[in-house]
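Notes continue from the previous slide.

Worked example: a multi-chain complex. Inputs as given:
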Amino acid sequence: MSDVPFRNPGWAGNTGEFDLTEEQVRGTDFVGERPPEGGHPAAAGTYPYQRVERDPDAPLFEGPYKERFEKILTRYPTKQAALLPALAMAQELRGHLSPETMNEVADLLELSPAYVRGVATFYTMYNKRPVGRYLVQVCTNISCNLCGADDVLEAFLRYTDTELGETSEDGNFTVIEAECLAACGFPTCVQINERYFENVTAGDVPRIVERLKAELEG
Ligand code: FES
């Protein structure tokens, strides 16, 4: 615990109204990641959002995926209402939602392809084109931006050797900017596939990228 008396009413940016250092406010390490197997119920909704290994040509919803699909359908009054989780599962399998994949989901749910296209293109969480094994989403919204998100983004681009929105030559990384990831109290927040990394600074980035590369090799 810091022995600095707590007298700031909240994060006041650089107004100089309190004497906490940046380290005292943000800590010196990023908080970590959501466990891939789910863990806390709050994280379960995102599991398993995006796997590292996926196959753009995988059949849609066979075997255990068929079971999950059927289970999902039981939660909704009509099969059409299950569109969002069905799209999420299609993306989990194939990595992105191509027009062909959207058409297949439309067939399965007896929806028009145009309706499915309209929904899929509304949400940024659905990838409309292929992404790298790791999709690195750096929040550059206001809280994170005030705490160095631009530097974090720049560091990810440098250490993954890629351009914004493009996929690295080895197919491992796509780095994009994200709007608020709902972790404003822990800036900068970075979502990498299904995991959240919080309190990330530019200095943490080489370690995070090395860790991801090691996971791929392991
Ligand atoms: S502003 Fe970055 S998580 Fe909300």
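Summary box: The longest strand covers residues 134-139. The longest helix spans residues 205-217.
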